[in-house]
Amino acid sequence: MQMIRFLRGLCLAVLFCLSACTPRQPEGVIRLSTWGSPEEMAILKPLLQRFEVQSGLKVELMHIPDKYFQKLHALLAANLAPDVMFVNNIQFPVYASNGAFLDLGPRLAASDTLKEADFFPQSLDSFRWEGQLQALPRDVSNLVIFYNRDLFDAAGLPYPRADWTLTEMFDTAQKLSGPPDAQGQRQRFGISFSDYFLFWLPYVWSAGGDIFDASRSRLTLNEPAALAGLQQYADLRHQLGAAPKSAEAGSLSMSQLFMQQKLAMNLNGRWAVPLYRQNLEFNWDIVPFPQGPAGSIVDADASGWVISSQTRQPEAAWQLVSFLAGQQAAEAFSKPGLIIPARRDVAYSETFLTPGQPPASAHYFLEAIDSGRPVPAVPYWNAVLEQINQALEPVWEGRLTAEEALKGLEQRVDPLL
């Protein structure tokens, strides 16, 4: 452990030296960092070229497709931060709590081209820290149920309604699952399963539970309502046989099982739409996550553009952020079906709703925003999540109940909060 700390300190020392030796950034050159797939880069690069022509500024793009936030952390620590950075609201508190970003609220209020009403309020709220708006959102992220209409037809089942309940979904998932084989494993399943927190949170929230209390200073995941949601989710695998266990899924992702028609329903996000449009040969659509005792609640997270508090060119950086948060850029990112735009005008346009292309019920992505909520991330989110994941592993594998596994978890999590 001492050696690891020494090496980390050495790396930071080297970065600080590099920072001192780095030539001063030329005036009129803005450094922009982002992660993103090749498809996203194919959208972003022409946009940046258009911005350069319009503004007379130069953009230096730092594409970091792997371990983005680890590398961003090192750049910030070494005073090498890009002027503009793409972040998500889950990692945002880590940096905002350390004063890494500028307050964009006054600039937005004074803007001639942008206003708060342009954006879904949930997407803006995701980027507020101690009363300051520190990012302009590009997109909203949430989850819906993708379903295979052909499998519903073959089973003689009606398609899910927008106001269906968790009880109805559990029953439907069971009916759509195939019988176990001689080894006790099923070849087709009714509903997807992932141990990643975004996919079990809707079950917790819709049951009336949450990870933390309202002040985010105390763990509540081990309280009755949250435990009920977690246990219902685990029971899809181990009691109902309606969701694949790890051994049954093997190396296949839930999207791959869905594409192979081994999965009738898949809880997933808008990012899956381009893949499904290109590869699915069956009839499919989406429906909202079903309603539990507290309603139908999924995440309403966001990704967006921040300006570094280290920048020497705040006004030029704001020009770039304004452009990337504008209607033209939002339309470019929305057209392939990749994102749910944070801009309301683009979200309710044909650019996003794409009549004639699946999913026919794309409006459900937008309706889910109204009842959604951001993931309750905290500055030590990664350390907190590690403790939660370790506690939940035996629940997902069917070795312990949620109540047994999470007993005493607050003793490890609350000090981090």
State the helix count: 21
Please report the distance between the alpha carbons of the first and last residues. 24 Å
Radius of gyration, in Å, reads: 23 Å
- The CATH topology of the largest domain corresponds to D-Maltodextrin-Binding Protein, domain 2
Uncertain residue ranges: 1-23
Number of strands: 12
Helicity level: 40-55%
The fraction of residues assigned to DSSP E strands is 5-15%
CATH superfamily of the largest domain: Periplasmic binding protein-like II
Shape: globular
Name of the level-1 CATH class of the largest domain: Alpha Beta
CATH architecture verdict of the largest domain: 3-Layer(aba) Sandwich
Q: Order of strands across the widest beta sheet? A: 2-1-3-11-6-12
Q: Which structural category fits the helices and strands? A: alpha/beta
For the record, the count of structural domains works out to 2
Query: How would you sum up the major sheet?
Result: 6 strands, mixed
Q: Round the mean pLDDT to the nearest integer and report it.
A: 93
